[in-house]
Specification:
about 425 residues, alpha+beta, BirA Bifunctional Protein, domain 2, Rossmann fold, 2 domains, eight-stranded mixed β-sheet, five-stranded mixed β-sheet, 15 helices, binds adenosine monophosphate
Length: about 425
């Protein structure tokens, strides 16, 4: 029988990699704490309607990429392809709009999209997601963009490009849609098949197309910025001015419309030159009509989502990860017959806040030493035959090889003082 493999577009994150995930998620958590965002842990599956109404029927995500199934109760269920719609649903359903505003939420976890897998693009991938709900101030947009950049600053990413645009609002977008239709009408036969279809249904998405034949046309398409109503124009100016004041290097990208329909006013993306074809580490913007689209009252909101895999790929390409997977502070090595002592010593070390591990395989002292060094232990504690009879343990510093034999009851104190010196 053939061994079962993980489904296409999925992957396992194991010991050698998962510490990198922990570092990225912990950094995001630190930024969330410092910016006043509270964590939201939401369902991985939702009613399909949440996404078809929220994200938009004509988007690639809803049309082609959702993992949708009927559950045993006959409901149409979808594995979440993104988190924003769920965040807005949770905000409405839990009555958060009746409490103090705005509500700043963050979350992270797996998302699911049936896409063609390639480097940086998977069918199950993880996003970090920050949202500010209940506020239309442009300074909330500045805060969202700054919080995403703060994560990258803290994990040590450089060489990122921040692109920004305004996609207008229901007041000014219809006019822009019309001027785009007028512009594309004469060159319709030059567009790819997908964009010809978009011409009627959603002409803004033509601007997003990466095919060379479409790019040739879209390069000279009229920019949205020229069609913005006064309110959207003012909002955009305040956002860009606010970012400028923070020293952020941001460029206007007239073709940035993003793949999800719910955006209004601000849309932005952060790109890395070290990612290859799938070069976006982050995407976000304002979505003042999403709450209404899913059946709630009007609630403005702004947010971003960033792919954890892409952050890690960029960090690796830029050498932002220093060293290897961190090991335990101590590995306790014991001769045959000293297992109880080893177990007690490990227990005591852990109680003092020293991370420790021991041997369970009945290996020789020499191979336990090899294992300790392979797993990156900073120190070893040896309870060999001599140490058993004398009630002592030998403590060895793996960095410089120095060692000392000490009474068993002094081991914890010795390790703690060495650990302090190691950290300096
Ligand atoms: P989106 O939700 O499409 O705006 O995407 C936001 C971010 O999620 C992107 O900038 C990527 O970093 C990440 N992302 C989106 N789709 C995928 C995918 N299929 N695989 C890996 N990362 C993804």
């Amino acid at each position: 029988m053939e061994a079962i493999k993980a489904p296409r577009g999925t992957y396992d994150v194991l010991g050698g990699e998962s510490w990198k995930w922990a570092r990225v998620v912990n950094t995001a958590r630190g930024v969330a704490d410092d910016f006043g965002f509270k964590e939201a842990i939401l369902p991985i599956f939702e009613h399909t309607e949440l996404f078809s109404r929220g994200i938009g029927d004509t988007t690639d995500v809803v049309e082609k990429e959702m993992y949708t199934f009927t559950d045993k109760g006959g409901r149409s269920i979808t594995l979440r392809p993104e988190l924003t719609a769920s965040m807005v649903r949770a905000y409405l359903e839990n009555g958060l709009r009746h409490g103090p505003q705005p509500v700043k939420l963050w979350g992270w976890g797996p998302m699911f999209r049936y896409e063609r897998p390639q480097k940086g693009r998977y069918r199950q991938f993880a996003q970090i997601d920050f949202e500010i709900l209940g506020v239309s101030s442009p300074f909330a947009d500045v805060e969202i963009i700054d919080s995403s950049m703060e994560i990258y600053r803290r994990v040590g990413l450089s060489n990122l490009r921040v692109l920004i645009n305004s996609v207008g609002c229901p007041r000014c977008r219809p006019d822009y849609r019309e001027s785009l239709r007028k512009f594309f009408e004469t060159g319709l036969d030059k567009l790819c098949e997908t964009c010809r279809d978009r011409f009627d249904r959603n002409p803004l998405r033509i601007l997003d197309c990466k095919k060379p034949e479409c790019r040739e046309l879209t390069d000279s398409a009229p920019p949205m910025i020229d069609s913005l109503c006064e309110e959207c124009k003012e909002h955009f100016m305040s956002v860009t001015r606010g970012l400028e004041k923070l020293g952020a290097d941001v460029s206007l990208d007239n073709k940035l419309v993003r793949g999800l329909d719910y955006y209004t006013k601000t849309a932005y993306e952060i790109l890395s030159g070290d990612l290859g074809a799938q070069n976006a580490v982050c995407g976000g913007g304002r979505y003042d009509n999403l709450a209404e689209a899913i059946g709630g009252p009007g609630v403005p909101g702004v947010g971003f989502a960033s792919g954890i895999e892409r952050i890690i790929i960029t960090m690796e390409a830029q050498g932002a990860f220093m060293g290897n997977e961190p090991g335990t502070d101590v590995f306790v090595i014991s001769a045959a017959g000293a297992e109880y002592e080893a177990s007690l010593l490990t227990h005591e070390l852990r109680a003092k806040g020293v991370s420790s591990d021991m041997d369970f395989m009945g290996r020789s002292i020499k191979s336990q030493m090899k294992y300790a060094s392979q797993t990156g232990a900073k120190f070893v504690c040896i309870i060999g035959e001599d140490e058993i009879s004398s009630g002592t343990a030998t403590v060895k510093n793996m960095k410089d090889g120095s060692q000392e034999t000490t009474r068993r009851e002094s081991v914890c104190g010795k390790i703690l003082s060495w650990k302090e010196a190691w950290a300096q």
